[in-house]
Structures are given as structure tokens and as C-alpha cells.
Amino acid sequence: MPVNLSAPQAHELKPIAGLKLGIAKAEIRKPDRKDMLVMHLAQGSRVAGVFTTNKFCAAPVTVCREHLASQQPIRALLVNTGNANAGTGDQGWQDAKQSCQALAQLLDIAPEQVLPFSTGVILEPLPMDRLLAGMPACVANLDENHWLDAAESIMTTDIVAKAASKQIQIDGVTVTVTGISKGSGMIHPNMATMLGYVATDAKVSQAALDKMVRDAVNRSFNCITVDGDTSTNDAFILIATGQADHAEIDTHSAGYQVLSQAICDIAIQLAKAIVRDGEGATKLMTIQVEAGRDEQECRQIAYAIAGSPLVKTAFFASDPNLGRILAAIGYAGISDLEVDKLKLYLNDVLVAENGGRAASYTEQQGAAVMQQAEILVRVVLNRGTAQATIWTCDFSYDYVKINASYRS
Amino acid sequence: MPVNLSAPQAHELKPIAGLKLGIAKAEIRKPDRKDMLVMHLAQGSRVAGVFTTNKFCAAPVTVCREHLASQQPIRALLVNTGNANAGTGDQGWQDAKQSCQALAQLLDIAPEQVLPFSTGVILEPLPMDRLLAGMPACVANLDENHWLDAAESIMTTDIVAKAASKQIQIDGVTVTVTGISKGSGMIHPNMATMLGYVATDAKVSQAALDKMVRDAVNRSFNCITVDGDTSTNDAFILIATGQADHAEIDTHSAGYQVLSQAICDIAIQLAKAIVRDGEGATKLMTIQVEAGRDEQECRQIAYAIAGSPLVKTAFFASDPNLGRILAAIGYAGISDLEVDKLKLYLNDVLVAENGGRAASYTEQQGAAVMQQAEILVRVVLNRGTAQATIWTCDFSYDYVKINASYRS
Question: Architecture of B284-404 per CATH?
């Protein structure tokens, strides 16, 4: 069961002026579930995106990159679940292009103004007939208030729909940021099998939007891992419709920090929701590595801990078998690691120092922390001022069960 | 259950002249199981070793390195299971030193002539009283024919004892190579949580032995992975007692290749036995990446596939969800990977080419291969002549079960 995560209420998700969402049940893979989403953006909207680093990236990712590079203003996003259109070769690319064309026709825009996204099974052809058949229903369904439906429509093995919303003031004007995400397996940064869409009605220059999307992703979706698998289809998209009545925000504007922080907050909430809903997750672990020489070594150690199946199964078992954390720190690849200097804490409990178990540590202390649903693993390297934080979940029978039967 | 692996018969394991093995039940962690081993080497023996790269390496690993560096001829090895003496700080180092001292006294040699090894739980102090109490029993038990007992005495979560033996001819003289290994979790190269000991009665120069140990480890124990965790305690030791009646083998001798190959064969058999007995394993997968630019890129891709929990759970489920393999290839970190050029085979079945599913491929073909207990995953990069082979196992409910309850 997801860790301290429940779906938001529809009314908690504030609409974004200039952005309408339309959902359909197109039976892409399974009957009677929402599996298609169209987002329609008003004229004047700006879009920025970050995509998977996987070299076997899916056809829609390639098409997204092409369309964003074409410099034509993006006016619509098309998302399907049930099929990833990845590992589909040239046919996959043609299918993605054709679906953009079809939607463009319905919305009276150019095909290059559409960004396509797919998530689901890899290596199977996209069922174009069903996708095309579902499009008119999506368009007929377009509405500013469909955020919760939209969050539900992009779920795959997700148990809980992921969405968040927040409002801030810029120049005395209320600005809204609302986002949705999906993903719970094949989750690893750069990027995870995850789709994330955050929209705001703020007026933002393209340069500022490009910077915000990178900052947000680096502090959120690129700080989570479920199973270390980086998917072929990941994308994080930031949309600014520009409908709010304030002066345009550029990278040096006073409003930049406020808006960027609000977008980060939403992105972090959406990213952590993915970990809370990690396949088979029963616990959320925050891995915080502090006082390192640089952020890179902190991240490396945090990921070694977060990625260790032995550490993750120990957390699942609530077993304070904490030597496994030390072992993971040891193989993180930091060649001059000073093992005698570092301290390991579980929440507030000092577990290890001077290269071994802390004299004050008792098994009872460790066991008490391990019972909790949210646990902080803190490694203090004591050799610098850099830090990094990674969120991950434990590794349970259900992870194996879900992934051994995903297609059936 | 281990994949096509059963324990050898005692009589299949040929003794090595000049090497005696003594076993005891010392109750290091659990009652009534063989958990201590002493190997006593005749004068004139030579020893070479390779150890874990984990920075949090265990105290006995540190002591082994010190004693090998001291240049005194190694005359005894001491192994205990049940406790790894890792993450035990200065006390751990003192305990390892003291245990060498105690054994040295019993065998009338210097403490620096003893190599200590420990495997088991991390972060708990070594129970010195029990270890010291068990030593006289080990010494009293010393015998050239105790190889199978020795293999059993070093098991932790292993289900099957791992040992192998083979004889070759050098200068018309019969030379024997016999080895044992242990390990089934925390298995990843450089090195795995594994202990491996291979001995021969061949007469070998130190330089040749040092080269053979590296060659053997690089082609065997450094080519396996179960869960990607590199342990704190791994060691691979090669012993040559020099009792066989042939001219000493140096790196350029005619006999070098023959002996080195025999040692490699035994090391590969022992390493694959670890994967066959991988925690929860139901299948053995050989990941072969061919026609790459260099060995490094082949290894990187092979490890990405072998390390992916999604790939491993699909194999467990016998589900030909083969897109997961493409995804793993894609995130292996090869920046200029040519996805359109590569071909993916499952045994003899061509699965993917031209960046997508092969036209000839059918789900039935994939499903038929996935049913088998031993599967070859072949990736042909078609851009060079290098290749690499990695062995791994699938990821099952039992992996989680074993590791969620290891200490209890």
C-alpha cells in the first residue's frame, strides 16, 4: 500500500486559466479505464521539457524533442497509457507523428504544435486504430476542471492518482501551480518511468521557463529511485499559460524565485508521491548525505544506499541490519572515502562512527526506528559542506509480484 | 532451488598434497553447524589473493593485506562464518589480529603467516571466545581429504556446498587443482560476498601465481552478479603448494597456459555455482554482449541487463517482456550507442533489430525460451570485435524472503 499517500480531492486541484484537459477510455490495453489524455493550451502558452536519457528512448520522446526544437508554439499534449511506443523502430516514430497529426486536425493547429507521450508496455506496436478512435472523445471532454481525471488517466501500475496544487502571490496577483504525475516502477533519475506535468497561469519568458524546468527536475524527479531502472519514456513538462495579470517573469525578475520555488514544491510533492506509491512500497526512506566534499559524492553515496536490494529488503523487514548501509556506502565508488570520519544516523539515532557501531547504539533503538513508515537515513561525511537528498522506498514481495505479472 | 547445481561427492574432490583442512562447529552464530575452517599449508607453499574493493572492507581483509605485504610465507588460512567482522572499527582489527596469533601459536608459525577470513552479519563484534575455543578442534581435524567438509563449513545462505576439482598434466606429471567457494547474496564483482579458495600442488613462481589469480578472478568471480551489492569481505585466494614434481612454472613457461586455464576453469565453475545458488534463484542467465568497440562497453551493457530488477523479475515470471532488456541497454551509459544497429537474441531467437521488434519474432518463440532454466541473452552491437560475458540469476519472491529474514 502506498506510504502515507491518498488521492487529492478534485476541488483541491485549482484550474489553470488557459489549460483544458480531456480524458477518454480508448481501450488501448484494457477495457473500461481512462487511458488517454489531451491537454489543450491557450494561445500564448509556453512549454519547456526534460526527457529520459535512455538511448533506447521511445518514439514519442524523439517526436517531442523534434517538435520543441521546431520553435512552433506548443498548443496540445497527447498522452496514452497501456503502450509505451518504445522499441518500436521506425514504425513507432511514424505512429507518434500520425497521432500528432490527427490531434492537430481536430484542434486546428499544426502537427508540430502537439507533444505526444506514451507509457506502458515496451516493444509492442501502438494500437493506432484505438488511439485515433479515442481522440474525438478527449477533445469533446476538454475542461479546465478535469485535473483529477487527468491524473487518473495517466496511471499504469500506480495505485493512487498523483496531483498537487498551490497558489502564490506575484505582484499582488494570485498565481496557480497545478501538476500531475504517474509512475511507480522503473523509477530512477534522468529520468524515471514517470510522466510529470506541471502547469501555471503565470506569465514567464521562455528562458526563465527553461531554467525553472531544469531546477525543478533536479530537485525532485531526479532525486528519486524505486528500482534503479531508467525508463525509455520519461518526461517532465512545465507549462506556463501566461494568463495571470502580472508583468512577465524573466530569470532576473523579483517574482522568479517565488514562482520557481512553488513549481519545485509541487514537483517534489509529485516526485515523492511516486516513491510513496513505489511498486510494493511499504516505507518511504529519505537518504540524506551531508558534509561531503561536493554534491556529486553525496549523490553517489545516497544512490548506493537507495539502490541496494539488501538495504531495501532490510527496511521492508523492519530489521535494523544496518551494516548493509555501511557496505553500500563502501561500494559507492568514492575512492578516498574516509570511513573512520563518517557518522550514520537512523532518524536521530547514531548508529555508526569511527568505522564501526557507535558505543551508544542499541538494537532496540534501531528496531524502534525501523518500525516507522517514514525513515530518515542520514550519513554525515564530515569532510565538506555539500549535501544531497534522495527519496526511495523499500523492496517487498509485492515488488516482485507486480513485476512478475505486469503484462498478464 | 539452485539451478542445475548439486553438491559434489567427497571422492570427486582430489586432495592437494601439502594442504590440510580442519573443520569445527564453534557455534559462532548458530548451534550444530560447521562454521570454522583452518587450512594448513606445507612449507614452500605460495599464496596470492584478490580482495573486495569496498571501502568499508572488513577487518580480516585489512589484516590479510597486511600479512601478504609482510612477505612472510603464508602457512595457514582461518575462516569463520556467522559473523563478518565488518563495520567493527578498531576492535575488529584487534580481534582479527588476535585470532591469527592464536592459530599461529597452535601451528607453531608466526601470526603474519596466517590469513583470516570472516563472512556473515556486519556491524556486530566477532565472538572471540567461541572463535578461540573452536581453533584446537580445527587443528585436531586437519586432513588432506576434508575438501567437502571445508566447502560446507564456509556456507552462509548457500543451499548447496560449492567445490570442484580437476587434474592436468604438466611435463608428464599429474597436477591437481581443487577449489571451494561460498556466497549467494550481496554478489557483485570487485568482489562479490563470496569467498573462493583454489589450491594446486603445482610448483609456481610468485610472479606467475600473482598473474594467475588476477586472470582467474577477472574471468570468473568478476563476471557474476546476483543483486549488485559488493560485499565488505570478499576474497579469492590461490594457493600453490609446490609439491608436484615438475620444473617451477614462471609466467613464460610452457606449462603456464595449461595451469592457468585449469585454474580459470575451476574458478568459473565455482563462480557460476554461486549464481546458480543465488538467493532465491530459479534461473541462470548468461548475458553475452558481442561485437562491441571495447570490452568495457560490452561489460557495461551486460551489467545493466544483469542488474535490472525489472529484467530479473520478468525472467522469474518466464514472461518474455523483452522490452525491459532494450530499456536496460539504453540506460547502460553508452553515450553513442547505435540502437538501430544492434540485435538482441534470446538463445537462438532474434528478438529485436533496427531499433524495434524483429519482424520474424513471435511471442511463442520468446515464451518457449523463457520456460528454460538456463537462458542466453545475446546482444550483438555490430560495431567492433570486443565481447564480455556475465552470469546472473533471476529475482524471485524468495530473494526478498531470504534477505528480509537473514538475521532472524
Answer: Roll (3.10)
